[in-house]
Design brief:
three-stranded antiparallel sheet, 193 residues, alpha+beta
Length: 193
């Protein structure tokens, strides 16, 4: 019986596109034009899945980790396929070149920090959160933001991404990074009308 190319909902509730049921999707394509299309589809899939699961990091090792956070998209047991680490590596490189990910930590190519929201978008989310929770002109630690008493869109945001978002806000005079005894803090400023 042939498997039709159809969408599939994962146990986490994520809807996989029909291309995920195509065996060639899981291998590097020799034709550069075809590979560019496959890479583009993988990038869309990875970013939407990361947003769905609130995942920030993707590592080459995730391709080899059964049952890991990324298993639902890096494997398709219905067609006995998984993404080889070399293919995932080229997808990550394409993501970095398109500025939808950055190698983290720097100076290596096996792990990326994903931008399912761009740093500029995180800056706006951060500023809206600070404004709506009455944090203007208050010094907050990075921990206060990443692990607030009430879960927020910023809960568990990685510090490198948080720092980028704050840096963007400092350029528009909406925030200031402040040295505090435990490391770094931030103060948000109300926009002048």
């Amino acid at each position: 019986m042939a498997l039709s190319l159809s969408t599939h909902t994962t146990p986490s509730g994520f809807l996989l596109p029909s291309i995920h049921a195509a065996p060639p999707f899981f291998t590097h394509q020799p034709n550069p034009a075809t590979q560019a299309i496959v890479s583009e589809q993988w990038i869309k899939l990875i970013l939407s899945y990361a947003r769905h699961r609130k995942l920030f990091y993707l590592r080459i090792d995730d391709a080899e980790t059964p049952g890991g956070d990324w298993d639902e998209i890096l494997r398709n047991n219905r067609i006995s396929r998984k993404v080889p680490p070399t293919h995932l590596s080229s997808i990550l490189a394409a993501m970095v070149s398109k500025n939808v990910a950055t190698y983290e930590p720097a100076k290596q190519t096996r792990s990326v920090l994903l931008y399912w929201r761009l740093p500029e978008e995180w800056a706006e989310v951060l500023y809206q959160w600070a404004s709506s929770t009455g944090q203007m002109n208050t010094i907050l630690t990075f921990y206060d933001i990443t692990d607030p008493p009430v879960e927020s869109p910023l809960t568990n945001i990685p510090i490198p991404l948080l720092r980028k978002a704050i840096t963007i806000l400092t350029k528009s005079n909406r925030a200031q990074i402040i040295a505090i005894p435990d490391g770094e803090g931030v103060r948000f400023f109300a926009q002048s009308k």
